[in-house]
Design a protein that fits this description.
This protein is α/β, with parallel strands linked by helices and 384 residues long. It has two domains: 186 residues, Glycogen Phosphorylase B (Rossmann fold); 181 residues, Rossmann fold (3-Layer(aba) Sandwich). Helices cover 37% and strands 15% of the residues. The protein is built from 15 helices and 13 strands. The protein has a seven-stranded parallel beta sheet, sandwiched between helices. The protein has a six-stranded parallel beta sheet with strand order 10-9-8-11-12-13, sandwiched between helices. Helix 3 links the parallel strand 4 and strand 5. Helix 1 crosses helix 15 and helix 11 crosses helix 14. The radius of gyration is 21 Å and the shape is globular. The relative contact order is 0.13. The structure holds uridine-5'-diphosphate. The site of uridine-5'-diphosphate has 17 residues, from helix 1 and helix 11.
Length: 384
């Protein structure tokens, strides 16, 4: 295929990310598959990105994520400066057939404002679409700007103006899904895991309370605000509590931690993360928000770990109740479901992941969307 895509991953983290980094991980998963299909990829990221691509452009020497702790008026120029570099590149070259943009709000607004001077754009919505109502509710990108979601449930909640630009959804994928059904099964421990940012929406407080009530071992893995290790959070002292996720952790989660039955282990990465997830009896998602894409859900299935979750957001699309997980609309029922999940088979989860959530499946879907977006008046998806 002769197609050059400018993949705009943004200025926040290098690609692949050094640790936590949902969007950058997806870009790092997608790009090699696109290149296998013959797509030329120009990556707009930061200089420290190491992902093999055909060409790189960047404004910042390294990831600017750390700056997000500063007040808005000190950081609002960062994504604008990055987009400014992207727009300059688009103005000075004529080989870009399509921009695949992943930069929250600013990417969409800037590329839409370029009007007919920009190539066709596919902007992937990785977020809760209840955010940015002023931007999403009034979007007019003409027939050049198209968006896609990461689940049908996410798009169904989007404002009408955003839906009018949509070409559908593409579920997230993970390299762990490749040949997931052929890997030898992992030995299971007896722990339940919650893998994700510690945040009210992810519901670690509920998981911790239920673990104490019902009596199952629980591992909470993930950062608390910017703190990845328990010792870093402890060393940060009271100032850290300015961060709402840190306050949530201390006030709602920490009272249930006993260092034995219920533990917070900080961020886990690489093999350690995979082993902890593969060895878990259950991956628990006690959600209090509409999970848009659920990377950790897809990873759990890939590693043969059944999912127990509140049936919100993308969960009913990713998990089949009774086969690859157990879902409920009543959060108080989660404890019982954790105990019942032993009936689910790891092999079913891994087969499902190998069939639906591989990078190749995701890349094929995106190539299909690129073709639609490049049609002069790309038809949008009519959502009910
Ligand atoms: N993650 C990780 N280590 C942790 C916690 C999370 O590597 O300790 C990864 C997790 O495996 C997943 C991503 O962070 O790939 C979280 O993405 P998800 O879509 O589940 O949640 P988000 O944070 O984007 O809402």
């Amino acid at each position: 295929m002769s197609l050059t895509v400018l993949m705009n991953a943004g200025p926040w983290l290098s690609v692949p990310p050094p640790g936590y980094g949902g969007i950058e991980n997806i870009v790092a998963t997608l790009v090699p598959e696109l290149r296998k299909l013959g797509v030329r990829v120009v990556l707009a990221s930061v200089e420290t990105s190491t992902l093999p691509v055909d060409e790189k452009i960047s404004v910042f020497p390294d990831g600017q994520f750390h700056a997000l702790q500063r007040p808005y008026n000190q950081v609002c120029g960062i994504s604008q400066a990055h987009l400014n570099g992207v727009v300059r590149a688009l103005h000075t070259r004529d080989d870009i057939d399509l921009v695949h943009d992943h930069v929250e709000a600013v990417g969409l607004a800037t590329l839409a404002a370029m009007g007919p001077e920009a190539p066709p754009v596919l902007h992937t919505l990785h977020w809760d679409l209840a955010k940015h109502p002023e931007l999403y509710g009034n979007l007019d990108g003409g027939d050049r700007i198209r968006v896609n979601g990461v689940s049908a449930a996410q798009l169904a909640r989007a404002p009408r103006a955003l839906q009018d630009h949509s070409v559908g959804h593409v579920h997230l994928s993970t390299p762990l899904a490749v040949d997931a059904d052929r890997r030898p099964p992992a030995a299971k421990g007896d722990h339940v895991i919650v893998l994700g940012r510690v945040n009210p929406g992810k519901g670690q407080d509920l998981a911790a309370r239920l673990a104490q009530q019902v009596g199952f071992p629980l591992v909470l893995a993930g950062p608390v605000g910017p703190y990845h290790r328990p010792q870093d959070l402890a060393a940060a002292g009271d100032e850290a509590r300015q961060n709402p996720d840190v306050r949530f952790f201390y006030e709602q989660v920490a009272p249930y931690l006993d260092g034995d039955l219920v533990r917070w282990v900080g961020t886990v990465a690489g093999q350690e993360r995979d082993d902890l997830l593969a060895g878990a009896r259950v991956a628990l998602f006690p959600l209090r928000w509409e999970e848009p894409g659920g990377t950790a859900v897809v990873e759990s299935l890939s590693l043969g770990t059944p999912v127990v979750a509140v049936a919100r957001g993308c969960l009913p699309e990713l998990v089949e109740h009774g086969r690859t997980g157990l879902l409920t609309t009543d959060e108080e029922e989660l404890g019982d479901l954790v105990m019942a999940a032993g009936l689910l088979e790891a092999d079913e989860c891994r087969r499902e992941a190998a069939a639906r959530f591989t990078p190749a499946v995701m890349a094929e879907r995106y190539v299909g969307l690129y073709e639609r977006v490049r049609q002069p008046a790309a038809p949008t998806l009519q959502l009910a």
